[in-house]
Design a protein that fits this description.
Elements lengths: L2 H16 L2 H7 L8 H15 L3 H18 L2 H8 L2 H8 L3 H31 L8 H9 L3 H19 L1 H19 L7 H21 L4 H28 L1
Helix pairs in contact: 1-7, 3-11, 4-11, 7-8, 7-9, 7-10, 9-12, 10-11
Length: about 240
Amino acid sequence: MKLEDHLIDKYRQIIAERYNYAKLTEYKPLPDGITEQMVDDIRTFFLESIYPEPAKRHELDDAFAQLQNYIHQPAKVWGIMGNLTAAIFKFGTMLPAALKTGMISLEAFTAAKNFEHTMARAAKDNGYSVPLTNEQFIDCLSKLPRHQLDSFAKDVGRLFRSMADTRLLSKTIEIMQDVIKKMESKTKIYTKDEVDGIKMGLDIMKEGLSLFSQYPDKTKEQMVDYIVDREMQFIDEIYFKHRED
């Protein structure tokens, strides 16, 4: 197995362990209304949709590359959406915020890729080989600049917050479905790979909507706040332990 794929697996393993319901309650009591089932569902969503195993992760690489392509080519976006006035007339004033949801996903994904590359360099510099122990993996994490992990934790929080805003997420899904329909009608302009990349992002949003629409707004907000707090505390533990060693 390639080193970077192994590091993805190790990080997924640590996430799964960290978000075990019993371990979370040892760290800090969960707010009322957050059940073990909710914790399990959110952990599964994160590990299967947002930070999946390496094979699916490589598919996401291609999907986000397509999204980046559109961000850097505004003409392509408006070739699908039409002019700004027409798009706002159709989708309402929520259009800019809905489009930003896609940007948040891209930023979280980019942050993950950046720290994976840095960890791979740290592993090689330390002479670590596959498979790494948990201690070696944490050592690699501690070699990252603190701001890089802080940024990733905040991006994950923003990503979950965007998914938890189910009213906005519904609007984003509506826009994405319209985009895909127009792309599929212009086969001479948009390739199948481009369409499939956008569809993959749409599938993640639909899964997020299905998950978060089950819960009241207050419960969703509390859960996202708890996740961000737990991630920042985990980062503190990494650097505190490193200083002790």
